[in-house]
Amino acid sequence: MDDFKEKLISLLHYPDISWSTVFQMLKKDPTLKNVYKFQTHFPHQTSLFSPSTSSNSSDNSSNSSFNPDIIRDQIRQYETNDIAVITILDKEYPSLLKEIYQPPWALFAKGDLSLLEKDPKLAVVGSRQATQYGKNAIRVIFPGLIDKGILIVSGLARGIDALAHEYAIKNGGNTIAVIAGGFYHIYPKENMNLALEMMKNQLVLSEFPPDTKPLRWHFPSRNRIISGLSKGTFIIEAKRKSGSLITANFAVNEGREVFSLPGSIFNPYSIGANELIQQGAKLVTGAEDILVEIR
After folding, report:
1. Which stretches within the chain are classed as H helix?
2. 10 Å Cβ neighbour count for 239?
3. Which pLDDT belongs to residue 15?
4. Which of these, 96, 113, 115, 230, is most buried using a 10 Å CB contact count?
5. Per-residue pLDDT at 42
6. How many Cα atoms within 13 Å fall on the side-chain side of residue 159?
7. Can you give the residue ranges of every domain in the chain?
8. Cβ–Cβ < 8 Å for 238, 245
9. Has residue 39 got a pLDDT over 80?
10. Strand, coil or helix: what is 124?
11. Closest Cα partner for 54 from 66, 43, 65?
């Protein structure tokens, strides 16, 4: 690892460091020559997410101490734990992700890195309380997508996200999970075995250092990466106020395709998905509805 890359990754371990703070620091010091001389605490900055788009230390405390030597040792141990770190300046960094607003400065990755190069990718997200209808839709639609080489991207959450990963694997396809927090704090715990399997045979990504505990604002933050990696986003069941709709909005703002599974007017988990269709998302009844747009 070259000196600049190590300094940039070290910077992401500072408590309460925001995306915009890193940007301003790179403008003032493009080689990060003075990175280890910075104060250990930065003021919160308004950003995309509340309280700030920061990569926190392991206890997520703004008063946490920061020891550059410890952080450098930590970074050098990532390779031992098969954790790759891909910065925005590395050739492996996904080109589609560079197009989004505030792309992550680095991706912590565990698994098959070649999946980052595979296209096309489709984000699939939905309710954490998946109904039988949503499960059946995935079971029916996914084989046609996987057969055409579509890679599924989701967030390893319970419900639709976990099912999307599982059915991609079950159908012999590939899948990428983007998680909130770091690798050492997988959430929810019920998906730990799925995460471990994906770290071996698929790919798990995070913009946060491995010892970062997931906080509430990390979840909408990671949604921009899920949509940012993908040519389109497919919503399967979502309430009117749902994190899945945040992912869809990111996709719209980046000029990506948005697809939605229609549902019963009597099902509260279909209200958000149906409203997306009213707003212009493509109604999906089969794999071909998606393939014709992103193939």
Report:
1. 3-11, 19-28, 68-78, 95-98, 132-147, 160-170, 192-201, 218-228, 243-253, 271-278, 287-294
2. 18
3. 75
4. 230
5. 47
6. 20
7. 3-80, 114-294
8. yes
9. no
10. strand
11. 43
